[in-house]
Structure prediction request, 265 residues.
Amino acid sequence: MKRKLSWLLILSCFASVGCSTKQAAFPAGKWVDLSYDYSKETIFWPTASPFILDTVSVGMTEKGYYYSSYGFCTDEHGGTHIDAPIHFAQGGRTVDQLPLSQLIGPSVKIDVSPQALANKDYLVSIQDFTQWESVHGKIPEGSIVLLQTGYSRYWPDRLQYLGTDKTGNEGVSQLHFPGLDPKAAQWLVTQRKIKAIGIDTASIDYGQSQEFSSHVTLMKANIPAFENLASLDQVPTLGAHIVALPMKIKGGSGGPLRIIAFIPD
Prediction:
């Protein structure tokens, strides 16, 4: 109850105009950044273009002040990013149509690192969830589910992280990393009614997927996925609260994501 009240206090503070310490004391805790930065090292899908940062201007101006400005180019689906439902579901929500209430909320973390690090093609199963629930209780409706495979330890080594450092279609054919079993995706949608899901790999479907069935199942239910998450080892199994705010691209199928976790004391 204390943690729930703390989170309500945070949200009420955010929602209040001119909120100050006189109105409400910010709850004790820490913020954890679950996002990677964007650079030439950022990992993208083998068929995607890399992130590019171009210098427009850097240095002292004729009028004596310093000025810097840059332009950037990036695919929607690279680095820490969001898959909006339209990505795999015709008529699904675009990234700008996702309500904030679906991107902010309490999380549960399922750690399958031992299994996933032993098997690059590991699929997170219904059994993984039911075993988790036997210890921690039923996954609450409206949760943001985080899947920790341990693969963030390999970032930004493409070979270790993706299973290949090749690009193009040859690279796609050689992808090997863990993901969510499509049967488990269906179970989460119908039996637990989650609001969003995230994973510390390049895709919610495993590397060798041909049909991307977990994407399809989730996104037909308008459930977005957060991919290439960082620092999930710093997020507790229960009790954290997620704020996942993507670049608001009108009509976009996804985009760069700044996702953070608040962990109350």
Summary: Residues 2-49+75-264 form a domain with the Glucose Oxidase; domain 1 fold (CATH 3.50.30.50). The chain has one domain: 2-49+75-264.
